């Protein structure tokens, strides 16, 4: 009995940790989106210079640079390396007394892989400072635990029944993913970030923007399925079906498909892509039509497009309450698993290309060709 209990606790611990960290494209996806944009702005000398200056300034103290060079960790940041930054911030732990400390998880050293560019006292201090400024400015409670405001910036939860993203619908708010993208753009345009966002400077804004444009193109970061206690879909915006918080799916993080949660299944990018932008992705990105309308409408329009991709992602899926009391909470049945995963693979390639192209469109608009 004790052994079983211990095993269950260990498994639950793993699941909870996995759930907490698996809240974005895998870091590879974020690096690829940044890499596509690096390539697409290469012919705009103004944007290229501004991105380089913003990401690499203000420089750390002289002694820190010397130390980093000795340790061979000194490097110039690109959009590709910037992509995972807001997920690296998740390693900042909130302690009693309002103390925030970046802590490497000894159980998961692999989480550090994309965070190596920020593995210095100077950059870790920046992450701690950002987490502290964006912890209590809004509340984000899941499983009875306060996760910190900044962890909500990565997603919005529009019901898949909606046709468009519109602020005010269930799952949207002034600190969701769409608001976060617009806050980053504001700072890069020399305007203050609207509350509740605290964005210290353009470097922080750009580190956030690269990541959030990636998240905005992951369908399950935008469209959500809402269920009743039996696992039947409900419409949280319809008064006849008020949303029951006890049935939350956490963007698919609490929905399990065999051994992986549905959210993580969508976060993973096709293995062959790796961590860079390949020729196919660059060609696809260059073919993405520019979005019309004023720039302040882009995040909303792109969220609407991702919502449609989420509607496809949930098409034909059925859900049932899981037997386990806490995560996994739901199980999903895919009508044809192989076909579903194959289609998801193709959608992911399109979405990565779109994200990279749109990030470049923002940067080319903020810093146009001279
Ligand atoms: Zn994210």
TrEMBL record:
Keywords: Disulfide bond, Endonuclease, Glycoprotein, Hydrolase, Metal-binding, Nuclease. Pfam families: S1-P1_nuclease (PF02265). PANTHER family: ENDONUCLEASE 4. This is S1/P1 nuclease. The lineage of its organism: Bacteria, Pseudomonadati, Pseudomonadota, Alphaproteobacteria, Hyphomicrobiales.
């Amino acid at each position: 009995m004790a052994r079983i209990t211990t095993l269950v606790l260990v498994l639950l611990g793993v699941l909870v940790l996995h759930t907490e960290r698996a809240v974005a494209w895998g870091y590879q996806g974020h690096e690829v989106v940044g890499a596509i944009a690096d390539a697409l702005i290469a012919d705009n000398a103004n944007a290229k210079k501004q991105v380089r200056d913003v990401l690499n300034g203000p420089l750390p103290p002289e002694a820190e640079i010397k130390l980093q060079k000795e340790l061979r960790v000194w490097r110039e940041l690109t959009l590709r390396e910037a992509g995972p930054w807001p997920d690296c911030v998740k390693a900042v732990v909130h302690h009693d007394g309002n103390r925030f400390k970046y802590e490497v998880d000894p159980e998961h050293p692999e989480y550090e892989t994309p965070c190596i560019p920020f593995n210095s006292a100077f950059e870790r201090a920046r992450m701690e400072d950002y987490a502290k400024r964006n912890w209590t400015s809004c509340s984000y409670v899941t499983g009875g635990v306060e996760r910190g405001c900044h962890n909500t910036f990565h997603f919005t939860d529009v019901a898949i029944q909606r046709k468009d993203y519109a602020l005010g619908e269930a799952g949207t708010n002034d600190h969701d993913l769409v608001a976060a993208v617009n806050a980053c753009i504001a700072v890069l345009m020399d305007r203050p970030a609207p509350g509740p966002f605290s964005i210290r400077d353009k470097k922080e804004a750009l580190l956030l923007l690269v990541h959030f444009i990636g998240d905005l193109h992951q369908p399950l970061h935008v469209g959500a399925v809402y269920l009743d206690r039996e696992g039947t879909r409900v419409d949280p915006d319809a008064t006849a079906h008020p949303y029951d918080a006890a049935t939350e799916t956490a963007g698919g993080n609490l929905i399990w498909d065999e051994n992986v949660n549905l959210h993580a299944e969508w976060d993973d990018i096709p293995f062959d892509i790796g961590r860079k932008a390949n020729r196919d992705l660059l060609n696809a990105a260059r073919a993405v039509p520019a979005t019309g309308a004023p720039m302040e409408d882009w995040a909303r329009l792109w969220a609407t497009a991702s919502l449609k991709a989420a509607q496809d992602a949930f098409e034909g899926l059925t859900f049932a309450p899981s037997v386990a009391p806490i995560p996994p909470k739901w199980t999903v049945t895919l009508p044809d698993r192989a076909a579903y995963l194959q289609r998801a693979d193709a959608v992911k390639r399109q979405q990565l290309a779109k994200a990279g192209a749109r990030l470049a469109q923002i940067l080319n608009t903020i810093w146009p060709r001279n």
